[in-house]
Write a sequence for this structure.
């Protein structure tokens, strides 16, 4: 976001002041604001900074030599570890594991991968051994839909599925649902595949997205920070038996959720005893942060979802309280339930959390297969690509760009809202649900190549291409393992990229590698960046050296001799990005002008200069000390650092200046010690 | 590390004021929020969780307040959106653009850019992923930017807005 607009937004609001803040906070032992502000920048530091700024400003300019500040050694190690990520990796790297598909339900299918060319043969509707997907992989117990009966809680007439969990760490876990048993090996494989899938989704969403079509992935990202706790639960290292009845089931999830929200929903009565509360307080802090919070509850729910055949039944508040009748309340455009109870909130929470991970797909698939939704919304007697379009567009349709006919919109809305909680949670889950719908259609329709083209849909509903239904279907197909992700090779793992970049930068600095002069003109300048951009375009478009606008020798050089990342492939996205980012990092003053030109533009790969420096802020790359980015480290850089600390309202550093100036304890941001470090370097007191 | 309570007090107050549109009530809710926060917050040292907790309490209390008002049939006393926005929006150009947003979108803008609530906290508050939240905010900001700069004309019909916020 542009700073100008952000500032304009901030300055455009004029909220009234709270009248009794000071006395209220004082009464509760919170120090006054003035005291806390003094702690922010200690007075001695501010005095020191101001004094130093004065002393330096009166005549110590350009003192001494101007050595480059370089305190870190790369250690000579240029080993780059590559890790596998991406949905397609899951499909191809895991060992063959029998999977029970939901389509037929009786015959196990072996994991297979299908190339794009096989689409028409392998994806006809009702194929019993459909290609399995990463999402299917995490629901190995899908053979059964009948939950096992366990001890019901008070006010409950339906009971959730049960999973027997060993309480003692180290004990072998036996998970039983409807006669299908998971071995430890299977469970281990499942967890690994889930992890891979998550890391793939993360990588896909967190970094450079070269095209609009590729910007979509199923929403699994929230999962990432729970992995460690989920694995510990899976391994029995964390006790999940909240009510100490010898098994782990939905009741345990509900009890923990109640505990974390009990202050708000005291009206709900559960079968809870002081012993259970004591047990919650003993075992419930799964993340070890000192508090039993919603996060612990979420982890436990996700653990349940990964081990059970979840369905929308669990999202129905009457599943827990048959007498519950929701009273809708429209609150300024946001729809709430006026009489929300802990049961209701748990059901809704279960629904939202289910849609944060792939469990949401399995539930939706089951819901549709069981007749919960009628996909033939145009009522022409068949479920086809038109119906897909209606569902897909509806989920993202904006009020300023309505394209669906009103009768179709009503029908789609009616069908969508058959899903429990959709009326109140549509905003929150619609992106996930759209992804699941795309996956469902992708795995049940006979796919034609044009279905992946957005423009194709304009012939069905004019203007619908703006909602990229083709791209969404494509991503659904990729997520289901039906279609290969053609943009996979253009995705970057941010951490890996940083590692590659730092290693390469240090290699060049220490003479172990050549600078990225990709056009071989003997200079490192903006022309190299342009070459990398054109080469990137060629890679995306599939152009060869002969088809490129680049000279053939330059193209071939990039394709064969430019493995800057050291990953064994020359001219891949990592190498392209290294060329584009490297220029920012050089402290060669001759390049500053072209670097400044580059600063004003956005890379073809979608990254701005600010983003580059922000991304690299925590790397070990040695900094030049050139706070004002004029190409040289001088005493005024130290002054500027001090000024930005002592008078931040008047003096600010650019992102590049912040990066350059962080010479002391690199990665910790700008501190007075950075100004001191610059001065010492200028005085020759530090190498 | 814990949240700066002095800073958060103001921010929670703004949030409540935006929700309930009454300064006295907003301050009451803010203090009640902090009282509950103080009662519970004894070991917390995670800023994200603390902020999430504060906004969750405040949001629930605001919702309770609204229900209470509804039950007392005092809805006539509540000023309409237009007046309310005029009270707190000083920029005509941006105010005009903001009024074209839905309530939820306005709330998001205030939370993100006035209260500077991190995306990680917002994503938890709204129950969506950080990336989905980022995309959503970017979409709103993109709209504001176009409106603000006059680059493109957007027309949010009132009826359409109702559809956007009430149905979706």
């Amino acid at each position: 976001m542009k700073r100008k607009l952000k500032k304009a937004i901030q300055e455009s609001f004029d909220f009234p002041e709270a009248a009794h803040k000071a006395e209220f906070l004082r009464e509760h032992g919170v120090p006054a604001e003035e005291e806390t502000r003094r702690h922010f920048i200690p007075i001695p530091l501010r005095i020191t900074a101001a004094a130093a700024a004065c002393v330096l400003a009166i005549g110590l300019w350009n003192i001494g030599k101007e050595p480059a500040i370089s305190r870190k050694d790369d250690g000579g190690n240029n080993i780059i570890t590559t890790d596998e990520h991406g949905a397609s990796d899951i499909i191809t790297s895991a060992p063959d594991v029998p999977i029970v598909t939901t389509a037929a339900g009786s015959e196990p299918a072996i994991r297979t991968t299908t190339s794009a060319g096989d689409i028409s043969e392998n994806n006809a509707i009702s194929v019993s051994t459909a290609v399995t997907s990463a999402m299917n992989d995490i629901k190995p117990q899908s053979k059964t839909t009948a939950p096992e009966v366990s001890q019901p809680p008070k006010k409950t007439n339906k009971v959730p599925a049960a999973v027997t969990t060993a309480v003692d760490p180290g004990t072998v876990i036996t998970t039983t649902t409807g006669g299908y048993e998971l071995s430890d090996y299977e469970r281990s494989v499942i967890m690994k595949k889930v992890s891979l899938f998550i890391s793939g989704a993360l990588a896909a969403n967190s970094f450079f997205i070269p095209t609009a079509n590729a910007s979509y992935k199923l929403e699994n990202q929230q999962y990432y920070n729970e992995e460690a706790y989920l694995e510990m639960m899976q391994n029995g290292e964390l006790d999940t038996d909240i009510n100490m009845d010898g098994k782990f089931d939905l009741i345990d999830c509900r009890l923990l959720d109640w505990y974390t929200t009990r202050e708000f929903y005291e009206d709900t009565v559960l079968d809870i005893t002081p012993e259970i509360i004591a047990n919650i307080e003993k075992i419930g802090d799964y993340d070890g942060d000192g508090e039993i919070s919603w996060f612990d509850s979420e982890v436990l729910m996700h653990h349940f979802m990964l081990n059970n055949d979840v369905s929308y039944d669990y999202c129905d508040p009457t599943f827990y309280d048959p007498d519950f009748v929701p009273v809708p309340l429209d609150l300024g455009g946001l729809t709430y339930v006026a009489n929300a109870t802990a049961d209701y909130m748990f059901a809704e929470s279960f629904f939202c959390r289910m849609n944060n991970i792939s469990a949401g797909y399995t539930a939706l698939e089951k819901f549709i297969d069981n007749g919960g939704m009628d996909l033939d919304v145009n009522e022409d007697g068949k479920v086809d690509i038109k119906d897909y379009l209606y569902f897909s567009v509806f989920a993202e349709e904006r009020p300023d760009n309505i394209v669906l006919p009103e009768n179709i919109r009503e029908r789609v809305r009616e069908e969508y809202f058959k899903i429990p909680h959709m009326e109140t949670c549509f905003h929150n889950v619609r992106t996930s649900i759209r992804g699941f719908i795309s996956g469902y259609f992708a795995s049940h329709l006979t796919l034609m190549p044009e279905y992946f083209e957005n423009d194709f849909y304009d012939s069905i509903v004019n203007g619908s291409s703006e909602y990229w239904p083709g791209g969404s279907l494509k991503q659904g197909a990729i997520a289901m393992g039906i279609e290969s992700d053609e943009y996979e090779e253009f995705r970057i793992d941010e951490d890996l990229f940083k590692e590659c970049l730092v290693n390469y930068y240090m290699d060049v600095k220490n003479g172990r590698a050549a600078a990225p002069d990709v056009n071989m003109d003997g200079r490192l300048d903006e022309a190299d960046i342009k070459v990398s951009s054109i080469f990137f375009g060629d890679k995306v478009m599939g152009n060869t050296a002969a088809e490129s606008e680049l000279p053939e020798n330059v193209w071939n050089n990039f394709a064969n001799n430019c493995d800057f990342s050291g990953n064994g492939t020359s001219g891949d996205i990592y190498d392209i990005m290294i060329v584009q980012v490297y220029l920012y990092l050089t402290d060669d003053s001759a390049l500053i002008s072209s670097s400044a030109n580059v600063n004003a533009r956005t890379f073809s790969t979608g990254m701005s200069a600010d983003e580059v420096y922000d991304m690299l802020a925590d790397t070990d790359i040695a900094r030049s000390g050139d706070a004002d980015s004029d190409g040289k480290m001088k005493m005024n850089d130290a002054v500027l650092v001090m000024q930005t600390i002592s008078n931040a309202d008047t003096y600010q550093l650019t992102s590049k200046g912040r990066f350059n100036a962080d010479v002391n304890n690199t990665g910790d941001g700008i501190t007075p010690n950075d100004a001191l470090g610059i001065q010492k370097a200028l005085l020759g007191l530090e190498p | 590390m814990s949240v700066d309570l002095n800073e958060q007090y103001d921010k929670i107050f703004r949030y409540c004021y935006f929700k309930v549109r009454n300064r006295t009530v907003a301050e009451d809710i803010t203090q009640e929020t902090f009282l509950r926060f103080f009662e519970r917050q004894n070991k917390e040292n995670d800023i994200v969780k603390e902020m999430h907790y504060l906004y969750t309490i405040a949001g629930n209390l605001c919702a309770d307040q609204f229900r209470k008002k509804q039950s007392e049939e005092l809805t006539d006393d509540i000023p309409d959106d237009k007046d309310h926005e005029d009270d707190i929006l000083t920029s005509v150009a941006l105010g005009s653009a903001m009024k074209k947003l839905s309530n939820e979108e306005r709330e998001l803008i205030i939370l993100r850019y006035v209260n500077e609530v991190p995306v990680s906290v917002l994503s938890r508050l709204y129950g969506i992923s950080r990336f989905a939240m980022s995309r959503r905010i970017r979409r709103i900001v993109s709209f504001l930017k176009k409106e603000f700069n006059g680059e493109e004309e957007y027309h949010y019909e009132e009826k359409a807005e109702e559809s956007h916020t009430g149905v979706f």
The two ends of chain B are 38 Å apart (CA to CA). Residues 78-83, 151-168 of chain B have pLDDT under 50 and may be disordered. The first helix of chain B runs from residue 5 to 20.
